[in-house]
Design a protein that fits this description.
Structural class: mainly alpha
Oligomer: single chain
Shape: globular
Number of strands: 0
Radius of gyration: 23 Å
Order of helices and strands: HHHHHHHHHHHHHHHH
Length: about 425
């Protein structure tokens, strides 16, 4: 199977990613520069875990087309036995990544699948995990020339994995200017500019490993001492919902194409520049919102519950990466649905929607029934056991929370009656 982000390197890198995230968090607290918020971090991690399911389910035509071209249209210029093949493939992949990335910032229908990575209003290592679940639709097209040239499948998958893993460490504010390395490689400082929504920085520094492509093609922008990057997207997501994050821009385009009265604009809205909208669809924005982070007030119980839901998401999805071959296709689909819905329900809690406790409770009860009695999952496998455990813990904890809240409400009511 030839897929751009299917390398086993990614699976083994995931535990290291989370270790580094914890180190960065505690370091930030220690030095008085914490760059983490629970809500934003939860969304980044849940999006990252959910993004692995399209690969595990082999969605789309990418693998079939890559194999077909490799078999019938491969010009055979590169041999797996030649060590230079790996170097050339690594450079070609990053060059292809540059153009794929750049086009996803310049064409709106492509931006719709990539914007999820930029919604985060904090810049930290968890932001690196904020990956799209719809990229399988067309990002693979940009790598077709490599397959035509004859890059072997195992080489392609390996360099793709290395490229993606490299990009993890550059999502941090704790590493400053790295001298001459800034002229060659993507670094935390120049990639931070890429994530900024300031008009002085927007749409720049597209490379994956090397910044030299940006310097060659005129898209490099250095950080200015007097302009601090403000992270996020020009049209803020204002949500922690991972499903909405993946479809926000699609929704905007769809509504604009319906609303606009100009027939030409109904088509143009899908293929225009990312910032363009029809004249009769433009909305006024409050300039104050540019600097505000979406951060709803929530109670301590929601914070604690969401924190542990985040850990369960990490362990359940992380274990599945290693036991995926032991599960059937339908079981992987069941995991995808369960983790996506649990993450979405918890995201609503983080937005202050308290009735989601009851929704999660009901869903967890159905989950236990599905695993225990309907045998939707093979309970002998660790990943199934972890998900089953998550459902049981949810039932126990939410029951206690609802009982306590009911008691508090009753006590308050009695106090009012006696006063």
């Amino acid at each position: 199977m030839i897929i751009t982000d299917a390398s086993i390197i990614i699976a083994f890198a995931v535990p290291v990613f989370f270790l580094l995230i914890f180190i960065e968090y505690f370091y930030g607290v220690f030095v008085g520069k914490n760059t983490y918020r629970l809500n934003d971090t939860f969304t980044s991690i849940s999006l990252g875990m959910i993004s692995r399911y399209p690969t595990m389910l082999n969605l789309g035509m990418q693998s079939f087309i890559f194999i077909y071209i490799s078999k019938y249209f491969n010009v055979g210029l590169l041999s797996v036995k030649n060590p230079f093949t790996w170097v050339i493939a690594f450079l070609l992949y990053d060059l292809s990544y540059y153009w794929m990335h750049r086009m996803h910032h310049e064409i709106k229908i492509l931006w719709a699948t990539h914007s999820v990575h930029h919604h985060g209003e904090d810049y930290n290592l968890a932001t690196a995990l904020r990956q799209t679940s719809t990229g399988w639709l067309w990002k693979w097209i940009f790598y077709l020339p490599m397959i035509f040239l004859g890059v072997p499948g195992e080489v392609f998958v390996t360099v793709a994995g290395i490229n993606l893993v490299y990009q993890f460490w550059v999502h941090t504010e704790h590493i400053g200017h790295l001298g001459f390395l800034e002229k060659i490689f993507i670094t935390p400082m120049n990639h931070g500019i890429h994530h900024a929504k300031n008009k002085e920085y927007i749409d720049a520094n597209y490379g994956g490993v090397f910044i030299i492509w940006d310097r060659m093609f005129g898209t490099y922008i250095a950080r200015k001492d007097d302009i601090k990057p403000v992270y996020g997207t020009a049209t803020a997501l204002k949500s922690f919902n991972p499903i909405w994050a993946n479809f926000q821009v699609f929704s905007i385009m769809f509504h604009d194409s319906i609303k606009t009265k100009n027939l030409k604009d109904k088509v143009k809205v899908w293929f225009s520049k990312t910032y363009w909208r029809p004249d009769d669809c433009i909305e006024n924005k409050d300039s104050k919102d540019f600097y505000d982070k979406y951060n709803p007030e929530i109670t301590k119980d929601i914070k604690v519950f969401s924190f542990f839901q985040m850990f369960f998401t990490i362990f359940v999805s992380g274990s599945l990466l290693f036991f995926v071959k032991d599960h059937s296709y339908n079981e992987i689909m069941a995991f995808a649905i369960a983790i996506t819905l649990l993450s979405t329900f918890t995201a609503s809690l983080l937005q202050g929607t308290k009735y989601m406790y009851f929704v999660i409770l009901c869903f967890s009860i159905f989950g236990v029934i599905g695993i225990e009695y309907l045998e939707l999952l093979n309970i002998e496998i660790l990943s199934s056991q972890l998900l089953f455990g998550q459902f049981l813990v949810n039932i126990a904890v939410i029951s206690l929370i609802l009982i306590y809240q009911g008691y508090q409400s009753l006590s308050t009511q009695r106090i009012k009656e006696y006063s």
